[in-house]
């Protein structure tokens, strides 16, 4: 019987309703007859009832499929023997074991959602996480159904000379009609979300890696032929990741070949499909001429991340999508550690925390706040969030901190050995750490269960007679949707004590026989209020709290500007040096905002100028850390520090501070810039990246000084640059300068790079971030430019996303034009690519925090979206939560 689905509000999926699958798939044989307009898929599934599952009919997921035929154990099923809706195929009365043959047809070139099998340029490729496989064939499309896949692909040999799938290639051949075929077999059981297929006329760059056990693994990167010169860095990064994972976690790769494919149209950064990683081209292609230092760094990190998934996500996968952070949080923590080991550990930690504070803390404070392990969802794609990934990584990092490095490795070894080939939960991960080390992490698991950002209040007292220093920690966590009250978290708090000269003091707790030697010790905070008493403290110390950002918390620690300035130049912890400086800058900026609001004259802080001068002239300090310490907090982050953000005053205050620091230290910025302007061939390494970073920070201050000669210096850097890092740094500064030179610079840049899609996205993003008054008009004009397609997620992120998320002074224009623009684009995108549309909505996450006029305008924009008929589940879930939140 063939029925259509009843129109209704999207279904809510609850963690509490989880049941094991009623049926399992032991073997999946797939045959694809490829064509971009119509692809035929023959799926032969060897299935059986799950002895641990419920007594239920067999339900297979399927969307946007044409069902050609259905056979049970070789016999065709008629229409009255099954039921079909727009999203499922239900087959009743099945035996305990059976074979199901399903023939479906799909239309890849009509698939603008970029889920399942779709057409990207001249490449056919797949994206199946989270629920894309159901757009290929009917299947129990859930992560706890794991099967051994064998895939045969047939296609026109001239059009699709390269045909790839998961695992090892078993056989291939050519038909008389000019078509050819290839068979791939993956011996490792996997869920359908890890399935991958790619076909196209692709260039392959090859290398190899010898594992610690002596096996040789073929490494291959497939790209469009015009990008064949951009693969070296990704291959180097892959080999670095493979060695690091062996050395650090004892994990060896398990197939004969590891493949990466770069595609231009991709909703995510990359996907860890077993043995066949599919990457957004922007996250894998790089040369010094076309990619910045940040691009090289990001590619190294993402290549490692997807490779590390081979164990933390593929060999051991998640039981259900509520457990998404089981693989993502753990793997992000692993790729962050990898990047820290290969580059500047201090800068890596600062960047990680900057992202967390800027985006995840805002998510925790908004209507989409959810635990690291959510309780419910309407559309799982909406939960690929910074909470799942970045906060999830912090949770795993805290476990490592609490148990220690060697103990954490013992725990992960047990986890991988115990659960290899299984689909498991975050509880299983924590249990493995507990069992390997005889520790109790039951209270710690609240980090997985409770949403929100805990707030720690620090109070200190020193008794000069008893030489006793008391540190009291009080923790609280604000209410979040569905969680009004929170139980105390288990928080590792890294603390150091400094005397007035900046020397570290020993830290002996009252109940200890011996003092703790070393700069830092970890305090285990488990109560709502907890006091730690240190004895034999020779002089009054200044406590350096939350070193290395040992927990994802907000800190209320009442330090004066002078104390922050002291820590900025004396703290032994690099992260806390940077953090003290940021807090000092924020205090000064918020004072300037208040002066602007009260029409008071603005005065530059001599304290901050003095500290900047000390940092700039500190020859012992890592130039990369200097660059970070001289960089002012973003306007978005400053807005997050205010109860009611004043967008215009924040912008004015930040511009005033930067301009006046630039004028005060112009000579020193000039001297440093010239010193770093040594001509040498580009190399991607930590030292050279640090030099370029500091050089470009100095240039940004010199241009901010208002001296017209500095614009000529900026143009000269662009003209002489032999790498994208220095070229783009100059262009970013020029787009904020009105006049002919700006337009000439933009025109010249585009003419030089218009054939390179990744570089053109940089050109779009630079203009979207401009502070000039006509930016929204320019953005709208660029949407009609030949370089832009609203069907391409990278274009959308570069232009619309950059404007709405990273240009607050124009996005939050008082007339509401920015909000209306976003609403219009979301409604267009929702019909094409609901995932991308939903992610664009994040720009309105904090709408209730703004002044009454802006709140009303943002609400109108959200309501204009909510009023539309046939919204996707992706957009419906977010917009209704935004409007419902109090």
Describe it for me?
The strands form eight sheets. The protein has an eight-stranded mixed sheet with strand order 6-5-9-3-2-12-15-14, with no helix packed on it. Among the domains are: about 15-200, tricorn interacting facor f3 domain (Immunoglobulin-like); about 310-550, Orthogonal Bundle (Neutral Protease, domain 2). Helix 9 runs parallel beside helix 11 (about 605-615). The protein is globular, with a radius of gyration of 28 Å. By secondary structure, the chain is of the alpha+beta class. Residues about 1-5 have low confidence and may be disordered. The chain contains 27 helices and 32 strands. Strand 20 and strand 21 (about 275-280) form a beta hairpin.
Quick take:
It comes from Methylophaga thiooxydans DMS010. With 886 residues, the protein is an alpha+beta fold. Strand 25 (455-463) and strand 26 (468-476) form a beta hairpin.
């Amino acid at each position: 019987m063939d029925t259509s689905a009843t129109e209704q509000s999207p279904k809510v999926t609850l963690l509490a309703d989880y049941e094991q699958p009623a049926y399992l798939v032991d073997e999946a044989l797939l045959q694809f007859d490829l064509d971009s307009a119509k692809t035929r898929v023959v799926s032969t599934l060897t299935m059986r009832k799950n002895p641990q599952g419920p007594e239920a009919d067999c339900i297979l997921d399927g969307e946007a499929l044409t069902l050609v035929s259905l056979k049970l154990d070789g016999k065709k099923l008629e229409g009255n023997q099954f039921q079909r809706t727009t999203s499922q195929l239900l087959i009743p009365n099945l035996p305990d074991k059976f074979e199901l043959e399903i023939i479906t047809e799909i239309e890849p070139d009509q698939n603008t959602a970029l889920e399942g099998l779709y057409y990207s340029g001249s490449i056919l490729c797949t994206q199946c996480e989270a629920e894309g496989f159901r757009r290929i064939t009917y299947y129990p499309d859930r992560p706890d159904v794991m099967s051994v896949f064998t895939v045969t692909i047939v296609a026109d040999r001239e059009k699709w000379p390269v045909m790839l799938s998961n695992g090892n290639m078993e056989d291939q051949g050519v038909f008389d009609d000019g078509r050819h075929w290839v068979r791939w077999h993956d011996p490792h059981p996997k869920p359908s979300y890890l399935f991958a297929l790619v076909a196209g006329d692709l260039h392959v760059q090859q290398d190899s890696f010898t594992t610690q056990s002596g096996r040789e693994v073929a490494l291959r990167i497939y790209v469009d032929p015009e990008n064949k010169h951009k693969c070296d860095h990704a291959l180097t990064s892959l080999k670095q990741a493979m060695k690091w994972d062996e050395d650090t976690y004892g994990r060896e790769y398990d197939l004969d070949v590891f493949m990466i494919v770069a595609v231009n149209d991709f909703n995510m950064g990359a996907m860890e499909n077993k043995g066949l990683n599919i990457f957004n081209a922007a996250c894998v292609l790089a040369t010094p001429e076309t990619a910045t230092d940040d691009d090289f760094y990001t590619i190294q990190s993402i290549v490692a991340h997807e490779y590390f998934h081979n164990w933390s996500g593929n060999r051991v996968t998640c039981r259900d999508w509520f457990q998404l952070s089981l693989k993502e949080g753990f793997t992000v923590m692993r790729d962050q550690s990898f990047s820290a080991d290969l580059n500047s550990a201090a800068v890596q930690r600062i960047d990680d925390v900057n992202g967390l504070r800027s985006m995840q803390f805002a998510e925790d404070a908004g209507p989409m706040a959810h635990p690291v392990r959510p309780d419910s969802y309407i559309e799982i794609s909406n939960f690929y969030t910074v909470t799942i990934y970045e906060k999830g990584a912090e949770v795993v990092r805290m476990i490592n901190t609490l148990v220690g490095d060697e103990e954490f490795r013992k725990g992960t070894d047990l986890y991988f050995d115990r659960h290899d080939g299984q689909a498991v939960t975050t509880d299983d991960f924590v249990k493995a750490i507990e069992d390997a080390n005889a520790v109790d992490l039951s209270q710690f698991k609240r980090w997985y269960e409770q949403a929100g950002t805990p707030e720690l209040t620090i109070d200190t007292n020193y008794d000069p007679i008893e030489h006793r220093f008391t540190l009291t920690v009080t923790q609280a966590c604000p209410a979040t949707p569905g969680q009004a009250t929170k139980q105390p978290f288990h928080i590792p708090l890294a603390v150091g004590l400094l005397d007035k000269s900046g020397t570290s003091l020993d830290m002996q707790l009252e109940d200890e026989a011996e003092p703790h030697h070393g700069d830092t010790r970890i305090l285990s905070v488990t109560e709502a209020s907890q006091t730690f008493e240190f004895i034999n403290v020779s002089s009054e110390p200044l406590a350096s709290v939350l070193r290395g950002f040992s927990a994802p918390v907000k800190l209320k620690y009442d330090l004066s500007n002078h104390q922050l300035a002291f820590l900025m130049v004396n703290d032994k912890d690099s992260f806390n040096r940077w953090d003290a400086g940021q807090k000092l800058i924020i205090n000064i900026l918020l004072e300037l905002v208040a002066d602007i609001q009260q029409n008071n004259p603005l005065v530059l802080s001599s304290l901050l100028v003095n500290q900047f001068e000390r940092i700039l002239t500190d020859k012992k300090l890592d130039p990369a850390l200097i660059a970070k310490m001289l960089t002012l907090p973003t306007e978005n982050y400053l807005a997050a520090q205010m109860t009611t953000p004043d967008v215009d005053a924040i912008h004015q205050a930040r511009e005033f501070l930067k301009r006046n620091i630039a004028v005060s230290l112009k000579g020193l910025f000039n001297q440093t810039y010239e010193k770093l302007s040594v001509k040498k061939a580009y190399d991607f390494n930590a030292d050279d990246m640090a030099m370029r970073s500091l050089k470009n920070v100095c240039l940004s201050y010199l241009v901010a000084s208002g001296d017209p000669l500095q614009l000529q210096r900026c143009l000269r850097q662009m003209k002489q640059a032999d790498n994208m890092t220095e070229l783009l740094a100059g262009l970013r500064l020029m787009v904020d300068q009105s006049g002919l030179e700006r337009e000439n610079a933009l025109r010249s840049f585009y003419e030089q790079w218009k054939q390179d899609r990744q570089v053109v996205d940089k050109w779009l993003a630079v203009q979207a971030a401009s502070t000039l008054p006509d930016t929204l008009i320019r953005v709208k004009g660029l949407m009609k430019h030949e370089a832009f397609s609203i069907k391409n997620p990278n274009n959308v992120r570069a232009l619309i996303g950059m404007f709405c998320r990273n240009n607050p002074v124009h996005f939050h224009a008082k007339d509401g034009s920015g909000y209306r623009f976003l609403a219009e684009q979301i409604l267009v995108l929702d019909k094409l690519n609901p995932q991308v549309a939903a992610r664009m909505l994040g720009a309105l996450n904090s709408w209730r925090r703004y002044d009454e006029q802006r709140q009303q305008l943002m609400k109108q924009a959200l309501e204009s979206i909510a009023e539309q008929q046939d919204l996707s589940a992706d957009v419906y879930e977010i917009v209704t939560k935004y409007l419902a939140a109090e």
